[in-house]
Amino acid sequence: MLLDAGVINQIELSAALAEQKRTQHRLGKVLTDMGYTSEMEIVQCLAQNMGYEYQELDREEINKDVLQALPVKIVEKHLVFPLKSDGRGITIAMCDPLDVGAIKDISFVTGKNVIPVVSTLTEIRKAIQHYYYGKEMPKLGEILVEARVLHPNQLTVCLEKQKNTKKKLGDVIVQLNMATEMDIARALSQQLNIPYVNLEIVGISDKVLELISREIAFKNVFIPINITKRSIEVAMANPMDSDAIREIKYIANKDVDVVLSTPKEIRDSIRRYYTGVSGRKGSEISMAEDFDDLQVQYNKDKGIIEDTLDIKTERIEVTPDVSRMMEESESPPVIKLVNKILFTAIKRGASDIHLEPSEKDYHVRIRADGIMVSLTHLSRSLQNPTISRIKIMAKLDIAERRVPQDGGIKLRLDNHEIDLRVSTLPTHYGEKIVMRVLDPAAANLSIHEIGLNAKDHTSVVDMIDRPQGIVLVTGPTGSGKSSTLYAGLTHILNDKINIITLENPVEYTVKGITQVNINEKIGLTFSSSLRAVLRQDPDVIMV
User: Residue 395: left if φ>0, alpha if ψ -120 to 50, beta else—which one?
Assistant: First the structure.
């Protein structure tokens, strides 16, 4: 139905169905968690295509007799909400009107026919909190503003970004560097009066872990830490995730006591405590589970990656000595393998992709959030074909393996242009390749979107707006130096000033700015270019 309505495509549906099979979650939840659609789009599709009425719960006046007719235990179990009861039956707001089990339970408890209408899970949760518990469910953004973690203007930027990406608000806030995971956890702890727990000093017994599978814990970002006869204590990143709480309660058959921790601490603890695979590090286990062992999986992809990832390449002149390498590198399995590496790395927010040769295998790692993470290990037999494929894509000399080379790849992922800056380095066990992921959209970030807190934002804008002076931006690899500089240039960009940049290389092109690509091989160095630029009547120079 969602496919026919054009809300999702076949690739997204296939991925969601595979994830649903793995997690046993409702398809609607899986689709929203993966960012393929929103609750409102699903609800509107149900209303339009199946004849169900859509009901906005915040506009309804609910009679107390209706609430008493349906116990809160049933309401929370099925995440439904009673609206009215009359001679025809009882009208129930549901996110899934096809949930036969819920309808049967409600009909049995009330003794009435169930008339489903559709509403979003968010609206249903709010209604349950308001009418059954007499309090409103706070929103994460409101909590963070009240705790002064976010400025209202920053929240507006995050909400707009969330609307476009369909990601969870907390993920968007961290991705934009508006706040850290720890900032969010502490604010939630203070505002919701839920204790924060440092998982690094908490011991968790195997008996507790046996109640909840690793897969469910990792998917929902929580970990059980203690049990009593009546309850199970769980550390969660989002204590307002009623779906996860309901699932824990159902699986453990106990009441759930929630404490707070950060997503990173929870995932690290899951890797540390759920040890079921010998001989591999915890961080590699989680990656391998998601990646499904590339050497086996790439033959089963059935073209999904090729359909999703559009890569621009060129045929190059070849000699007989090189033709064998090109033929080997352009075989369908190798193309699928390389495409899957790129696809997975970019989807996981990698800033760099490393392909590292060693004595026994070919190691693929990515840098995400400034930290190197293992993606998979390939056999040595795939090393040369993989290198050759990437060098062809980057328009490099595949026959030359003795000296470093630099090139670039342009690709399209989900109708989004991505540039890869490719660097090769000869090593003892073969060529190492590092690809820097450059998203042109990053150059469009405003100074309000790069993650500055309110105080720093004011200081930076004040410095940038001054008519003279120098602004120095420093930091480690992937820390956002280029994004900060481009955001500053975009902030002051107008037709009244002349902006020139000296870059090696030009990472992002910006309309209205003169950008010089340094090329030391032909003598176009930073020093010579700077002397020339000073004669170009510049108002602003970025080096």
Answer: left
